[in-house]
């Protein structure tokens, strides 16, 4: 919770600043870190929202480092998988395709992870 609050303050200040390249890179990284902190607290929807800001927002995506992008995609994919497992446990159906779509998007954005992500997609489809 402390990390989430601290990163929230950093995000607010960076977003309010006149964003140059370094501030956008810092902002993307802060969103990625907060997404992970939220996921660690099992706040899946909020984690997805922050991760999506980095990977789907054009300015942040372009300014983000490879590490920030990877972290954001990892958090987003893991959070979607957790939501799927929760729904499954509750007897509801949560579409596996949502997790697969995130992994496919990640694969296009960072092709160097292609083999790993294809293996992960196959594991999800085999469940």
Topology record:
Blueprint: H1 2-16, H2 21-40, H3 44-56, H4 58-63, H5 66-89, H6 96-109, H7 114-126
Helix pairs in contact: 1-2, 2-3, 2-5, 3-5, 5-6, 6-7
Give the termini distance in whole angstroms: 33 Å
Unreliably modeled segments: none
Class from helix and strand fractions: mainly alpha
Mean pLDDT: 91
Choose one word for the global shape: flat
How much of the residues is beta strand, in percent? under 5%
What is the structure about, briefly put?
83% of the residues lie in helices and 0% in strands.
Structure, described:
- It is a single chain.
- This protein is mostly helical and 127 residues long.
- It contains 7 helices and no strands.
- α3 (44-56) packs antiparallel against α5 and α5 (66-89) packs antiparallel against α6.
- It is flat.
């Amino acid at each position: 919770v402390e990390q989430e609050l601290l990163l929230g303050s950093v995000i607010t200040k960076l977003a309010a600043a006149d964003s140059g390249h370094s501030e956008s890179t810092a902002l993307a990284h802060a969103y990625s870190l907060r997404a992970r902190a939220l996921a660690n607290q099992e706040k899946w929807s909020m984690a997805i929202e922050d991760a999506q800001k980095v990977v789907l927002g054009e300015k942040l995506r372009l300014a983000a480092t490879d590490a920030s992008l990877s972290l954001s995609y990892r958090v987003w994919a893991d959070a979607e998988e957790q939501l799927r497992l929760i729904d499954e446990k509750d007897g509801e159906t949560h579409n596996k395709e949502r997790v697969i779509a995130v992994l496919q998007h990640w694969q296009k954005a960072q092709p160097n992870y292609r083999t790993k992500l294809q293996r992960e997609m196959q594991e999800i489809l085999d469940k």
